[in-house]
Amino acid sequence: MTAEYPVAPRIAAPSVWRTGKALPDGRRLRQLRPAILPAVTAAALLLVWQIVVTARHVPAVILPPPVEIAHELWRVLPVLLHHALPTTLDSLMAFITASALGIGLAMVITYSPFLRDMLYPNLVLFQLIPKVALAPLFVVWLGISSESRVAFAGFVSFFPVVISAAVGFANIEASALRLCRSLTATEWQSFMMVRFPFALPAIFSGLKIAMTMAVIGVIIGEFISAKAGLGFYILYASSRMETAVIFAALLVLCVIGVALFGAVALAEELVRRSYGRQ
Amino acid sequence: MRVGEKEPYVEVAEVGKVYRSGTAAAIEAVSSISFTVARGQFVAVLGPSGCGKSTLLMMVGGLEAVTAGRITIGGEPMTGPRTSIGIMFQDPTLLPWKSAYDNVLFPIRVLKRPLACYRDGARQLLERVGLDGFMHKKPHELSGGMRQRVAICRALIYDPELLLMDEPFSALDAITRDEMNELLLDLWQQYTKTALFVTHSIREAVFLADRVLVMTRRPATIVEDLMIPFARPRPLAIGESREFNEICGHLRERIEKGHYRGRERRFEANMAPQELVG
Fold first, then answer.
1. What are chain A's domains?
2. Which of B3, B23, B63, B89 is the most buried (most CB within 10 A)?
3. Number of H helices, E strands in chain A
4. CATH class of B8-84+162-271
5. One digit per residue, pLDDT tens: chain B, 278 residues?
6. In chain B, which residue's Cα lies nearest the Cα of A200?
7. Which residues of chain A make contact with B111, given a CB cutoff of 8 A?
């Protein structure tokens, strides 16, 4: 039927767009949709939040309006940044430790069938335990220092790394390893030149999970015992019924989380590109 | 047994292979095979799919251990993979994150030879196989035939004396396959390697080889050792000649006889008609 028309428009844009001069091309808007749509949705939600809270006279202690949160954020930002630093550093420390140990253990499991049979089922089992419940134990063992929180956060984020890396190392194409063998490559060479790059997507998906888990672990650690950090400050603000400050702290925490996750994603891009270019 | 006038380079003596897996009955894949390949000779091993000819090739390449007999290459008993052998596998086995050019140089990196000495060679080889415009393309951007051409270059770059090929073109369409056969002969004449080529295509074997060995089904043995009289260079058109087709007919008969002896009538149905007729 469309064939009867010599020039059929490829994308049928709403007539408003076609006639409106501000948007001469509806297609451009569609291209930008992935960026615009979530932002518009979030803005709309904030607007609804603001209107409902104001119109219904919800007490600020229960749910402060977004405008007040923004105001509070601006007021306590220096304090929040002061508390953001230990949270960020502890998360990073935990993540780095968990990544190194996780990838290391995955290598051991890959090359030793005995250790794999011994450890892997237990690791998977551990992955299923709600490890958050173990947080108080770390306080018992390591006290209320920063090391205790790093150890707990590292413990929590270790499991996704080791399991995804082990899966990645195991999923290599057998033919690629055979090629290495035919070229008299050493085990180390075939690991570095073939097995590791093949496993990179799996490893990084584990690292991304680990990064978010590390932040969660540190916050929980700070909830239990800390003298600084955003987790500590959220508890402090809640004890003073400063709900807007809690939201402001959450906002800062979001930014930190996104930045750390973005750093891992960037590292993945760089590492994979370096393998592509070598 | 007929042997070329020159000294034997590959000697396969009473070689057998038995697979034992756990409690299951042992499977005899290859049974007491003996032949020699003279230096510079192109020998095709012809047999139906799954007859153990790939196993034989992998044993010659040192990638599978023999369970009986011995293999000697260049006077040295075969103990494992060595750098005087280049192998082309059934699939190209290219590293997906490396460009065609870097895939060709992969053996040089593994063998830790100075890369600078081989860059020109890699470029020339790729030009030689008609991939000058595709050097920096990744494998997923290349067609199946192009990938196998990259694999040929990769097998030739480190200048092995013996080239082992395991049905390298079996996944390609008939036209591409003819092209690849012509290209392979061209390269072989230029580099004059000793070559052992495994295939289930009668026509491919007769077109390429100086000598065709016919293998039967499991346990695999050699039932025919035939010199192919055509002079080189061989144009694709010799495939139309009467003599060529007579040789193909003779080989087909030998395969069928070998098959009857193996009392497995089934494989006739498994084999595509054009492979039997050639």
1. 66-277 (1.10.3720.10)
2. B89
3. 11, 0
4. alpha beta
5. 444 456 789 999 989 888 887 766 788 888 888 999 999 899 999 988 877 888 899 999 999 999 989 999 988 898 889 999 999 998 999 999 999 999 999 999 999 999 999 999 999 999 989 898 999 999 999 998 999 999 999 999 999 999 999 999 988 888 889 989 999 998 888 887 899 999 999 999 999 999 999 988 767 788 889 899 888 888 888 888 999 999 999 999 888 876 544 444 333 444 444 444 43
6. B97
7. 183-184
